[in-house]
Amino acid sequence: MTLREPRLTPTPIRDLRPTQITVGLREVHEKRRRWREESASQGAEFLGRHMVPVVLGPKGRPYVLDHHHLVRALHEEGVEDVLTTVVADFRHLSRESFWVCADMRGFCHPYDAAGRRQDFDAIPKSIAKLVDDPYRSLAGELRRAGGFAKDTTPFSEFQWAEHMRSRIKLKALDEDFEAALKRALALAKRQEASYLPGWCGPLPPA
């Protein structure tokens, strides 16, 4: 059996369409910091390691399936192009059928910053128009702190964000992010979080 290497295509960030409404801007800022640290010496290598998966939609437009935070960070840092790889081609579908199909495949996440599902029309048409959801930033930091494992489930961090949204007040998150993260780490180990992707709850007694 012959394995095919992914075909990478340089694509202008301005042409990329999101498949979600929000990002965690705290996470975007962290990725901007990392890019500034690495771009001078290994910018091309960094971009080569982070190919962006897309699905082609009506009129051949590329819709981002992952790395929304990274693409937003690169856009804010003035990077014009990223490498993309096509994982599905839905160019033959109507706009309505495209979004229904994307939804059924787990390719989109039409939920707003309050965790409420919206019509597909609410999904921005550009990476620059993605809005902030602080709980998505919390979920990203929670994973990096070992609160849960990286998982292939689509939009798994958003599931953790929604779990924390009903347990940690936004005011607490705004006033002391580190304290909120500590609280989230404790919540992540509870059995009530075991339904979430990547859960790695308390270790059994020795």
What's this entry about, in short?
With 206 residues, the chain is an alpha/beta fold. It is 40% helix and 12% strand. Helix 1 (25-49) packs across helix 2 (68-76).
Structure description:
- This protein has a four-stranded mixed beta sheet, with no helix packed on it.
- Helix content is 40%, strand content 12%.
- Helix 4 packs across helix 5.
- It is globular and about 45 Å long.
- By secondary structure, it is α/β, with parallel strands linked by helices.
- The chain folds into two domains: 124 residues, Conserved hypothetical protein from pyrococcus furiosus pfu- 392566-001, ParB domain (Alpha-Beta Complex), CATH 3.90.1530; 58 residues, Helicase, Ruva Protein, domain 3 (Orthogonal Bundle).
- A hairpin with a 5-residue loop joins strand 3 and strand 4.
Task: Please write out the topology.
Layout: E1 9-12, E2 22-23, H1 25-49, E3 52-56, E4 62-64, H2 68-76, E5 81-89, H3 95-104, E6 131-132, H4 134-144, H5 156-165, H6 170-175, H7 177-188
Parallel strand pairs: 2-6, 3-5
Antiparallel strand pairs: 1-5, 3-4
Name the features:
206 residues; alpha/beta; Conserved hypothetical protein from pyrococcus furiosus pfu- 392566-001, ParB domain; Helicase, Ruva Protein, domain 3; 2 domains; four-stranded mixed β-sheet; two-stranded parallel sheet; 7 helices; 6 strands; 40% helix; globular
